[in-house]
Amino acid sequence: MSHPKAASQFLKDQANSLWHDETLWMVREKRDAISKTIPEWEELRNLASQIKDKVLSNLDVYLENFEANAQKNGIKVHWAKDAEEHNQIVLGILQEKNCQAIVKSKSILTEECHLNPYLEKNGVEVVDTDLGERIVQFLQQPPSHIVMPAIHLKKRDISALFHEKLQTEKGNEDPSYLTNAARLHLREKFLGSKVAITGVNFGVAETGEFVVCTNEGNADMGVHLADVHIACMGIEKIIPRRKDLGVFLRLLARSATGQPITNYNSHFRSPAKGKEIHLVLVDNGRSLQLAREKFRNSLKCIRCGACMNTCPIYRRSGGYSYGSTVPGPIGSILSPGLDMKKYSTLPFASTLCGSCSDVCPVKINIHEQLYEWRQEITKHHGEFGKGLSMKLASGIFKSPLAYKISGSTMRKAIKLLPKGLIYNPLNVWGKNRDLPEAPKESFQEWYKKNRG
Amino acid sequence: MSSRENILKAIRGIQRERKELPTLPDFKLEGDLVDLFIRAIQANKGEVMGEEEFNNWVSSCDFHSIISLSEPFQSLSTFELSEDPHNLNHLQLAIIQGQFGVAENGAIWLDDSQLPHRVLPFITEHLVIVLSKENLVDTLHQAYERIGEEHSGFGLFVAGPSKTADIEQSLVVGAHGAKSLRVVLM
Question: N or C: which end of chain A has fewer CB within 10 A?
């Protein structure tokens, strides 16, 4: 489904979409407030961007160092060229361990690889343990935001869902009550799992350690109780030095939710006695994106979600309207690299206002890349099959007569059109906009009268 | 060719400009570190208290399963550590000695030398970290400077109790891990 079409679905519930818009804006404001308490904020963004520049210019060497150091620490390192190989590697480890049920903390990469359905198809029960992710998993939905997976849902929805799945009291919508029910439910899962899967926020080349950040503590509850920890990591998550973590951890949570740091920041360097850590390094289109010079910087992303919270389109159209694992502005420059045809409408889901680039903690020029993708997509337009509006326009421009008639028809029509055409929930772009004032005559008519 | 070789070969084949790693400045804070640290912990929904206040709190709570790994409070322990971390499931209170704290964000560094089981600060119902006022640094930059080359299999910056805002952005403390964090600043 195209972005405008999917967005119109989201906007049908006007009260909900207004809440979504305002709530994400509140998160954006929290980010602004806390960033202003750090005098060196802009300098930190520059440093983070420069460190990532270095990483991307030297990625092969850093990956080799990272692997060698991780292996020295007793971590088993695997390499996957694509999603399929990643999923096979994970399943292989589970089968070797005779494991049929796992717990998993938040990992956008495993969403990107569609690991859950793959494992489930192969008889493995997967339990997402981040509260928001567990909620959307119960609903068989993907996350709608990379930091706040269930931001599209209201507490009444979650109350009804937990009543059905966790036997909570009907109609009890108290977030503390509902969270406690999930705590008890997931505690059982943590205690019973032999294998736990996590994502990776940062992998440090010089030490071979990797860092996982959560507020709930769910990643750690899973891995420290399990015998085997599988960490899934995109190859771009490398940073060179341990001290670079100082820069990135200062930026990450402040940009994501406006808090100074996540409450748990775990550094995994070697397995505890008698346990195993497996690390899967995944390419899945990243080396291709690295080769695209104009889009290379998109690989600097640390998945904070700030660009989503600030984006006027994301806030008003919801995460699902993008139809991609990573939604919002950053998703709209990453996804076309994976499948330009499928995601061809995403770079157009932007006003190019540049707010995404302004808040990005690693200074990705997101709005410029959106513009660049539009050029790429327009070049390939014929291959994708033209949209109705393009067909219509090209038909009109081909015939001078049709052009004249359509012009005068539109000038009359605009005057007669009801405002409801714009102020209706089906028109994504019409919110808070007005129809233009139609000129009385066309330029041709004016020219004939005055200069002809 | 293995996927490893394929990926590395693909990356090596890409023309890239050489870039240099920046030198990191030693950013510091303005103000009193103790004061800033206390405010940071409070913002993260934790509490900071002195020894006396802590003693009063513990005796008012009537806990029956406590593990204390902090020298000054060793006598509070009621629970023998066993091999299997699953036995910690009903632990009510863990008292751990923190290595140092970070004033800008309240993060406290723990590693394998403080954690006989890595799951301890997560699985316990309530967490207390004992920290010396002397052991505060300004920002994460000084924190990583201090950790330096130290080698531990696991290291953790813990900055507050387990929390979530996944239900309509309402903050709830006590998601999966410890329901409270108290820092005893000595």
Answer: C
Q: Do the domain assignments include residue A73?
A: yes
DSSP state of A174: -
Q: Å from B70 to nearest chain A CA? A: 21
| pLDDT interval class at A386 (50, 70, 90) | very low
- Hey, are the CB atoms on B44 and A155 less than 8 Å from each other? no
Confidence band of A432 (pLDDT split at 50, 70, 90): low
**Distance of residue A196 Cα from the nearest chain B Cα, in angstroms:** 13
pTM of the shown model? 0.90
DSSP string covering A109-172 = HHHHTTHHHHHHHTT-EEEE-SHHHHHHHHTT---SSSSSTTTT--HHHHHHHHHHHH-PPTT-
Q: Which CATH architecture has domain B25-185?
A: 3-Layer(aba) Sandwich (3.40)
List the domain range (segments joined by +) for residue A73. 38-284
**8 Å CB contact of B176 and A186:** yes
CB spacing of A79 vs B144 below 8 angstroms: no
Q: By the CB < 8 Å criterion, does A130 face chain B? A: yes
**ipTM score assigned to the predicted complex:** 0.98
Q: What is the mean pLDDT of residues A16-41?
A: 97
pLDDT at A388: 44
Domain boundary residue among A339, A356, A384?
Answer: A384
| Mutant choice from A38, A54, A179, A193 vs B, greatest count of B C-beta within 10 A | A179
